[in-house]
Amino acid sequence: MTTIAVTAATGQLGRLVVAALLDRGVEPGSIVAAVRTPEKAADLAALGVDVREADYTRPDTLVAALQGVDRVLVISSDQIGDRAASQANVVAAAEQAGVALLAYTSILNADSTAMLLAADHRATEARLRESDLPVVLLRNGWYTENYTGQLATTLEHGLVGASGDGRVQVAPRKDFAEAAAIVLTGDGHEGRTYELAGDDELSMPELATLFADATGREVAYQDVPVPVLAEILAGAGLPAPLNEILADSSAGVGRGELQNGSGDLARLLGRPTTPAVDTVREAAAAVAV
Ligand SMILES: NC(=O)c1ccc[n+]([C@@H]2O[C@H](COP(=O)([O-])OP(=O)(O)OC[C@H]3O[C@@H](n4cnc5c(N)ncnc54)[C@H](OP(=O)(O)O)[C@@H]3O)[C@@H](O)[C@H]2O)c1
């Protein structure tokens, strides 16, 4: 029996990966939800999933959590700009456990992108290259939910960004989660790097039109310089340097850095990726326009 661990399994992506593993027929008892906050995983424990404490900043918890694990998905933490060292702790624990496969959720075009967001992904990829572990890199592109997640705010204030006419390839989290589950339960993925981008490609003005069509409201796209976007994000409560990193990411979209023609995501899924309009319509239904 292969034991598969998912770190950060209480996060939005992690939960979807656990669900996708269960959908693929993996027994709950063969899944380890390795989480910082076990209380948040009571529902997973109730399903029979093996919930273990695993805090990236506390190596002792990581070593214990990965004991007996064959394959592990390491989901990048949300401590953006400050996660290379803690993610290295997870790699070291996986080495100590001698896992047979480590999959890491990196960023699309990690080799070439100039986005600030990519720096700690590159550091973790470099740490993985130093390791003897069998590794597969899941270089995830942009979630559609990065845009639909704030639809209520967007309807109030408009869509604001620093992406100009640049286009971004998007797919919902569930597509990336399903691809991860396919890799974790499949064979022959060791040593591979997947550039995972949605089939759908949108500019911000096109996205504004999708929002308008789905809600019947007027939605315009306003392009602003990066420092102005950073200030807007700070005003919305994002701490520094996260506001600056996310404003820079919006400019990265403008430079086409979240596009990739590999087709890897659809190929892994064995189907086209979920169209952005579907995710936009779901979000519109949820905000009760
Ligand atoms: N591709 C994209 O468009 C995109 C967009 C946003 C984020 N991301 C990246 O993808 C990851 C997964 O996305 P998501 O939407 O699932 O994010 P999320 O819902 O914010 O979940 C982040 C997870 O990271 C966990 N975490 C944070 N610090 C940790 C630590 N020290 N030790 C262990 N776990 C820790 C959190 O644990 P708790 O539940 O205990 O808080 C949470 O479960 C994010 O963390 C981020 O790196 C990608």
Summarize this structure briefly.
The chain contains 13 helices and 12 strands. The chain is α/β, with parallel strands linked by helices and 289 residues long. It has a domain at 4-143 and 172-197 and 261-270: Rossmann fold, CATH 3.40.50.
Characterization of the model:
This protein has 13 helices and 12 strands. With 289 residues, the chain is of the alpha/beta class. It has a domain of 176 residues: 3-Layer(aba) Sandwich (Rossmann fold). It has a 7-stranded parallel sheet, sandwiched between helices. Helix 1 links the parallel strand 1 and strand 2. Helix 9 packs across helix 13. The protein is globular and about 55 Å long. Bound molecules: NADP nicotinamide-adenine-dinucleotide phosphate (NAP).
Write the layout of secondary structure elements.
Blueprint: E1 4-7, H1 12-23, E2 31-35, H2 42-46, E3 50-53, H3 59-65, E4 71-74, H4 84-97, E5 101-107, H5 119-130, E6 135-140, E7 142-143, H6 145-148, H7 151-157, E8 159-161, E9 167-171, H8 173-185, E10 193-196, E11 200-203, H9 204-215, E12 221-223, H10 226-235, H11 242-254, H12 264-269, H13 276-286
Parallel strand pairs: 1-2, 1-4, 2-3, 4-5, 5-6, 6-10, 7-9, 8-12
Antiparallel strand pairs: 9-11
Helix pairs in contact: 1-8, 3-4, 4-5, 9-13, 10-11
The structure holds NADP nicotinamide-adenine-dinucleotide phosphate.
CATH overall fold name of the domain at 4-143 and 172-197 and 261-270: Rossmann fold
User: Unreliable runs, pLDDT <50, ≥5 residues?
Assistant: none
Bound compounds = NADP nicotinamide-adenine-dinucleotide phosphate
Strand residue content: 15-25%
Physical arrangement of strands within the biggest beta sheet: 3-2-1-4-5-6-10
Secondary structure class reads alpha/beta
